[in-house]
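Handout, page 2. Input:
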Amino acid sequence: MENLRAQLEELKKRLEVLEESIDPVDEVMLSIKARLRKKLSDGELPELDEEKAAKTLKALANPDRIRILKMLSERPMGFKEIKEALGVESPTVSHHLKLLTRTRMVRKGDKYEISPDGRLFLRLLEIITALGEVEE
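Output:
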């Protein structure tokens, strides 16, 4: 019983930390709401497109791609800056950026920058990882 109380207290502490870091009027959450309103003419979510969902998750399924999103969330960066920050070869960086661009998480102009979709997915990853550890 004492062990359960200790676990409950630990969960309460984690929840407090989450509540402090997740602002209910967070810019990303407002963006989601606005974008969903535009896309949902009949008020319901469309049926899940498994192929599109898998491609999106694949784009996020690499630590270097997540690092790229994190770096771009701070400021736009050129290809060479990204390559040097990651410490990997050019073809690898090119592959990562291609996947992130195809899934609309990154935009390319003069420099690469994170898109609203990229910010959303990065925020969701922060929330998911804050909720608990994933076992390998």
